[in-house]
Amino acid sequence: MSLASQIAAHLPFLRRYARALTGSQASGDAFVREMLEAVLADADLMASLAGGRVPLYRAFSKVWASASGPVATGAVASEHEAGAQARLGAITPPARQALLLTTLEDFTTAEAAAILERTPEEIAALVAEAIAEIEREQTTSVLIIEDEPLIAMQLEDLVSSLGHTVSGTAATRTQARTAVAEAMPGLVLADIQLADGSSGLDAVDDILSVGAMPVIFITAYPERLLTGDRPEPTYLVTKPFQEATVRAAISQALFFGSTRPL
User: Fold this and answer.
1) How far apart are CA 96 and CA 61, in angstroms?
2) N or C terminus of the chain with fewer C-beta within 10 Å?
3) CB under 8 Å to 112, separation ≥6 — which residues?
4) CA distance linking residue 76 with residue 146, whole number of Å
5) pLDDT surpasses 60 at 76
6) Is 44 exposed, middle or buried (0-12, 13-18, 19+ CB in 10 A)?
7) Where are the strands (E) in 107-221, listed by range?
8) Residue 254: left (phi > 0), alpha (psi -120 to 50), or beta?
């Protein structure tokens, strides 16, 4: 596989990381573009990326760290970005990076240490710092849109263990509408493909038409939503998922106070 093909294979997930880090699709993509421009201008840097995901994320982290702030794309364009900017200062950038790398991106502590050029012990401390800050956020009610009963039960247990309540569960778009009519949630966890062939994306659009809350999509095919062809979910978890990954996504979504998927 050529180096360009290797980078392209990892790029959708780097973009996911960048969006979660900055709280904005536009800002995250801008930093990814800046990194790619730096790679094209530096033959040695380009050659170093042959090592896989770790050097790619390390190159991105250097670009992000060199910026004046985590959001560097001009005026705030949405309520989501306003909420993100208001909260970014509450947790240090290295702690936020360490948490996302070891949960959302599923790097080992040693790999995250290599990316951030720190020791594994420092990474562990940063993750603990991030979790402590995020867990101070207010608890909420959660609607789970999932057509696989065992996964729905797993998510219910996870949500409850974090101190949140489950406002309802739904296996179809119609059930999701009914659940929201009975109780408006503060957070939605949604699968993409539902039991009757309906779409979790459509179910979420229905919900957001009557209320505003963070949304986390959980799907076995994340690459289908990471094409850049349309506004993409800020919070996207891959099936089969690690509970720590969902935990981190919930914490990030509530921390940034997002109201719509970007």
Assistant:
1) 12
2) N
3) 97, 98, 101, 102, 123
4) 33
5) no
6) exposed
7) 141-145, 165-170, 187-191, 215-219
8) alpha
Cα(171)–Cα(106) distance, integer angstroms:
28
Model confidence pLDDT, tens digit, residues 123-152? 999 988 887 776 665 689 999 999 999 999
Angle (CA) 60 64 69, round 5°: 170
- Is residue 142 within 8 Å of 189, Cβ to Cβ? yes
Report d(CA 12, CA 28) in Å as an integer.
Answer: 11
The strand pairing partners of 166, in sequence order, are: 142
Predicted confidence (pLDDT) at residue 184 exceeds the cutoff of 80: yes
What pTM, to 2 d.p., does this model score?
0.57
The rounded distance, in Å, linking the Cα atoms of 249 and 139 is: 14
d(CA 115, CA 40): 20
| Cα distance between residue 190 and residue 225, in whole Å | 14
Cβ–Cβ under 8 Å, residues 183 and 168? yes
- Which residues lie below 8 Å from residue 161, measured CB to CB, with a gap of 6+? none
Most confident of 166-175, 213-222, 232-241, 243-252: 166-175
235 contacts 252 by C-beta, under 8 angstroms: yes
* Amino acid at site 72: A
**Cα separation, 223 vs 196, whole angstroms:** 23
Tokens 């201008």 found at = 41
What amino acid is encoded at 41 in this protein? A
pLDDT of residue 108: 96
CA geometry: angle at 140 spanning 138 and 145, to 5°? 145
